[in-house]
Amino acid sequence: MNQFSQRISAVINSSKFHWGIIFFGIALRLIRYLYNPSLWFDESVVATDIINRGFMEFLQPSPDYTQTGPLGFFILIKLAIQVFGNSEYAFRLFPLLFGIISLFLFYKVAKHILNPEAVVIALGLFAILDPLVWYSTTLKPYSIDVAVTLLIYTFVINMRTKQLNMLQTAFFAFAGAVVVWFSHPSIFIIAGVGVCSVAFCSINKEWARLRGQLFIYSIWALSFVALYILYTHNLTSDMDYNMGIEKALKMENSLMPFPPESLKDIRWYVDSFFETFDSAIGLSFAGLAAFAFIVGGISMYSENRERFLLLISPFFFTVVAAALHQYSIKGRLILFLVPLMLLIISEGVAKVSNKSGHNPAKVGIILIALLFLYPFSWATYHIKNPSSLEEIKPVLSYIKDNWQKEDILYIHFYTQYAFEYYSKYYPEPFAFDEKEYLIGIAPGAWYYKWRKNKIHDNYRMREDITQSSTDIMKEYVKDLNKLKGRHRVWILFTGKVASMGLEDAKFFLYHLDTIGKRLDSFGRPGVAVAYLYDLSEQVQ
Description:
It contains 24 helices and five strands. It has helices spanning 2-12, 15-35, 41-51, 71-84, 88-91, 93-113, 116-128, 130-134, 142-161, 166-179, 186-203, 207-242, 245-251, 263-280, 286-303, 305-323, 338-354, 360-384, 393-401, 416-425, 444-450, 457-460, 469-481, 504-515; strands spanning 408-411, 437-439, 489-494, 517-524, 528-534.
């Protein structure tokens, strides 16, 4: 039995098995990508904005919405659509490529930092975790954040383990200066590893290495300053004008209560810590993952303090930014930290397995099985059932197939970006004449964040854009009542929107059922759905 366990261990720890995991991770990402779901709200906002702006215009805030993405991200996507056209494949190409590159970079970093028995655990989790797969196939910059994090660590590993010549020093200085432009949170990584690396060189009296690293980190810092002056400052100023960073963080319950002043505030910290392992990383047994993270951190600190501090230092700068209410430590915005957390978690699992009395193999198998259970089940489920948030294409096809001459299409305000993309810019557009559709009114505050250049006349001259639920419902009713007298009205919804605690779609349908007759429907509520109404006569 012991020989069998040794053979199994040898296979699992072999490079061939590791490469198998990497190719499985690539397959998971390609399957999602090739499924080619419709662009959902966030994606369609970015897509229409990129289509309508030139390269130099990206330096300024979007005239259409509160822009937050990194400059390099917009430039890459613009290049992709200029070469390959305005398809979803082109828009999602670079997130996919960076997601795939991250697998190779993570393997390289893991082999250098982790003990051998922890490498396969870390690599397996990185390959299958849903947030990492999802954001590799979505028009979002977060997979680029992950790749940039790992790229910076590969730079640092080389800078810490090799004596660089002038050419290598120049290369790392230039490469690091460039990647800063592709990832906002890269500054937290650079600040963390930079402070640690300089401190280690000083403590160890590695003066030649210190001079080279000071030069490299100085170039990186100067690049960030240039980026801030030319680009980031404009975004933050625009956001402060339209909404404010603190208000945006509050809306997502991501505003760190610092300093904590009550038990509720302290609970926020505890809940956020455990929530990170579930929502950001995608590990359903958050308590177990947190335990492994703590054990891994203690183990790394005791065995190799330098290695641990290099991994943990970016967390400190991220938390400082969150305490200053300039960043969030929840959800997708900390995806760039997930690779570092996985390294520490995997080290913890390996340590528990090796220190668990007479049955280390059994304990290790249980721990690994529990950690992998949900991510692996979810990954294999999506092989057959790739996910889509808002599938508008089949609904638009149905409307087109059943369209009659006097029909009118009413588009719920949340759907307007996706509709704009698929009706105007899609390679095979679902073309509608401007007289054939109208965009529904939105709550006042919505325009100042999402449609700054198309503020509705109802709100244009108002200084106070806050509205009660009753006011919003009145606006909706007044807008829908304009459709009275028409024989065939299509009402198009995507996603789930609750402007007043009640889903908009449910409220709209309730009112439409009182003023007309429902003739048809197609699609899935909460994903994408269209309803056909006869509003020619008042329903008794």
